[in-house]
Every structure is written in C-alpha cells, then in structure tokens.
Specification:
By secondary structure, this protein is α/β, with parallel strands linked by helices. Helix content is about 45%, strand content about 15%. The chain folds into three domains: about 180 residues, Rossmann fold; about 200 residues, Rossmann fold; about 40 residues. The chain contains 16 helices and 13 strands. Helix 11 crosses helix 13.
Length: about 450
C-alpha cells in the first residue's frame, strides 16, 4: 500500500460525495482559440464545487508532473485522445498508471471514432462526457467497447454569462440584415454537414432579389474569433444557422482517407461522385445533430435566428425561438417578411432571450453542476490522492517549465532534421534553433529586470 498524507487519509474516510476533490484539467488553448473552448475550460474551474487546476499543455510531458497529488484527471476535448501530437506517449503512460478518477470530454465524434474509443479504454477512463445524443450513444460508443464507463451527454456549448448584460444596438439600428460565417466542411462528413455552407450560397443568391444587405462567407480566411465574432453577431439583425454535426460517422477513418486520396488525384471531383464511391451506404445511417454554441450567443445578443428547421437538442422551437427556413428555401418570401417586420422580429428575439438565453438550464453553471454530479457518483474512496495537492503557483511554474522543455525539444528536432539536409540548409536550421533557445533564456531575464525597475 502507498503512504498517504493526513489530508488524503481524512479525504478517504469522508463520504465521496461530501468533499471537494482535487482535480487536474489537461487542455490545450491559447489566446486565439475559439471562445467556446476557453469558456468551457474556464467554467469548469470557476463553477465546479471541486478544486480544478488547469494544466494547459499539448504533446508530451516529463515525469515532473505528479499525478498522485490529484484525486482525478479530466482530459479536455481540446486534446485529441488518440493522437500523440496532443497526448504524447509519456503522458499517456502516466495517465494509464494513475489510480484516481479519470474522465474525458470529447467532441467532433464523427471522426477517429474507433481510435478514440481504443485510446480512452487504454487510458482507463471511468467517465466519458460526450455530445452524442443519448438515443444513439450506444451506436457510437457500444458498452462492450467501453465496459464500465459512464457515458454522459453534454451540449457543445452554453450561454456565455458575460453576453447577457452586454449593451447591443436595437434591431432597427443594425447595419447588416443577415450575417453568417462558416467553413466548407470536408465532403466525407456527408450531406448533413454540407448544409452549413449550402445555406449561405442559396440564401445569398436569393437575397439580391429582396434588396437585403448580407455579410456572409464560408472562406477560412474570413472566419472570426473572440471579440471580433461577438461584435459581428451583434451588428446583424439576423443570422443564418443550421444544426451542428455530421451524417457520416467514420469509425475506422477509411472514408476520410479514401476521399482525401481521391481529391489529391482529382481536386475537381464532385461531391456526388465521392459520396457514391465511398460513403453512399453510410451517409445518414447515424446522424449526429446538436445545437451549435452560436445559437446561444445569438439569443444572448438579441440577434434574430433564421435556421433550417431541426431539433436543436430540444432547446429551440420553430417560430417561437427562431424563423424556420425550409431546406429548399421555398419560403424565402415568408422569412423576409418577418425580417422586415420589426414588431414580429422583436417578439421572437425577446422570447428567445427570456426562455433560452436566461434559462439557467442553458448556462455553463448548469453544465458544470451536471459534470459534478457524475463525478460524485463515479468517485470511489480508493481513488483519493496519495499526496497533498499542488498550490496554484507551483503548478503554474511547472506548466511554464514544461512549455520551455517542449520548445527546446522542437528546436532539437529541427537540428536533427537539419543534419540530413544540405550543409547550407542545416546552418539555417541551427541559427533558428539557437534563436529559439536564446529567447527562452532572455524572457525570464527581461521579466526579472522589469520587476527590479518597478
């Protein structure tokens, strides 16, 4: 038996559901990351009744991080469980050895499905927080492949609290009639995912006849993040939207590989040809359809939603919370009529604000409470930490040290590759690598100098 501290011994003797656990959240986000990722991770730390410390890291870690200081480890969906670029071999082995509670958040579950399932099983996950609707979760994650694992369905996003009190322009003051941003998703995701960009093309083509002012794009370079996205959404009278998800669940990855290889040979091949060749029988068999986080953002910012009719995870109702647009766009004139009728538009806007944006069930706090309940049920006394927990400053210093180590490792990898190149190329790599190392040394010195001056 391993020795336990007084703190851990008292924790073991206490009821599992009656104490605050020490949990580590492994994740990967930077300043430019999508706000939904940051909001999700930070809400766990802020609102959980448990003490959650964030370790922001991507790739592999040394053995310096002591997992036995925690009662449990949470793997955020910003880390792809089955890829070494996100969870390296050493970190993977450390999580597998860890005797505490282990939980993972997973999204985009239409890809790498079998590999992700195998990785979660190898890590010894006890709880899987998924966005797959409960009615089809057995098809995506069969119990025999994850024996004993608790599977809990969450939403892809929730209402950001800071948007609820935000001052926004009135409906009639907004300069854009209808706005939209999305990316053209890969063909192998199927017909359902294609709707995310087809809706923009079709709507924009019809909008000219009605004299609508539109700001729409499905180009990657036009995507907006953070405050820029929020400002854009708040400048539009209405926003287009569809359910998020996919109608192809690529369990083995063969569909994606076959489609990408075909596109490499013939970039002009049509979607219909790719579908008929590689996923005709798979498209629509399992449809992952959920509400998008941008629906909650639009509701909070009092932006009218024009959406393809759908279920939207049971949170939105057509004509009550949004204006339904038929998928063949045959009711375009009806949609425009509402858009131009300020009273009718504001009636829907006010209702979705009250019933959806202000609904506590749609808050990040509700999500965290759900996560806490599942963790409480899954935690067992023998999972308790063997050592006293890290203090925040100690863990932050360790995180920065691991980042520097990762940067040095990359620099050395560049050097190693340079040895296999012509001499002149190798010297360029050497110079760049030493530049990286120099910056790592100078940065702490600059910080100390600034502190002395101040």
């Amino acid at each position: 038996m391993h020795p336990v501290s007084d703190l851990s011994r008292r924790a073991v003797e206490a009821p599992a559901s009656g104490r605050s656990l020490q949990l580590l959240l492994l994740c990967d986000f930077v300043g430019g990351s999508a706000s939904t990722i940051i909001d999700h991770a930070m809400s766990l730390r802020k609102s959980s009744r448990h003490a959650i410390q964030i370790f922001n890291s991507k790739g592999d870690l040394s053995d310096a991080l002591e997992f036995d200081r925690f009662d449990g480890v949470l793997i955020h969906y910003s880390l792809v469980a089955c890829m070494d670029d996100y969870i390296g071999p050493n970190l993977r082995a450390a999580i597998s050895r860890f005797k505490g509670l282990k939980a993972a958040f997973v999204q985009d579950e239409y890809r790498w499905t079998n590999e992700t399932t195998d990785a979660l099983r190898a890590l010894g996950i006890h709880v899987l927080f998924s966005v797959v609707p409960p009615e089809i979760i057995d098809e995506v994650y069969p119990q025999e492949r994850l024996p004993g694992v608790v599977r809990e369905t969450l939403l892809t996003g929730y209402v950001p609290a800071e948007l609820l009190g935000r001052a926004v322009q009135r409906y009639e003051e907004r300069s854009v009639d209808v706005g939209y941003r999305a990316r053209k998703l890969p063909a192998w995701l199927g017909s359902f995912a294609r709707e995310k960009w087809l809706i923009a093309d079709r709507f924009k083509a019809d909008a000219a006849a009605y004299g609508l002012v539109c700001d729409m794009s499905t180009r990657e370079e036009d995507r907006l993040y953070g405050e820029s996205w929020i400002e854009f959404l708040a400048s539009c009278k209405a926003v287009l939207g569809t359910e998020s998800g996919s109608s192809v669940c690529d369990f083995t990855g063969d569909i994606q590989r076959n489609v990408e290889q075909h596109l490499a040979r013939d970039p002009t091949v049509s979607y219909e040809t790719l579908r008929d060749l590689y996923f005709k029988d798979t498209d629509g068999r399992i449809i992952l359809s959920v509400i998008s986080p941008r629906c909650f953002e639009a509701a909070a910012l009092r932006t009218l939603m024009i959406l393809y009719d759908g279920h939207y995870s049971g949170r939105l109702e057509a004509w009550r919370h949004y204006v339904p647009l038929r998928k063949d766009h045959s009711n375009m004139s009806e949609v425009v009529e509402v858009l131009r009728d300020r009273a009718r538009a504001e009636e829907i806007i006010d209702r979705v604000y009250r019933e959806v944006a202000l609904n506590p069930d749609n808050s990040f706090e509700a999500m965290v409470a759900q996560v806490d309940r599942v963790i409480d049920r899954a935690f067992r006394p023998e999972m308790a930490a063997a050592k006293s927990p890290y203090v925040d400053a100690e863990l932050t210093a360790l995180m920065l040290k691991e980042r520097r180590r990762a940067t040095i490792r990359k620099a050395l990898q560049h050097l190693d590759r340079g040895r296999r190149r012509p001499i002149e190329t190798a010297w360029v790599v050497v110079v760049r690598a030493f530049g990286v190392l120099a910056r790592l040394v100078r940065t702490p010195l600059r910080r100390r100098t600034k502190q002395k001056i101040s």
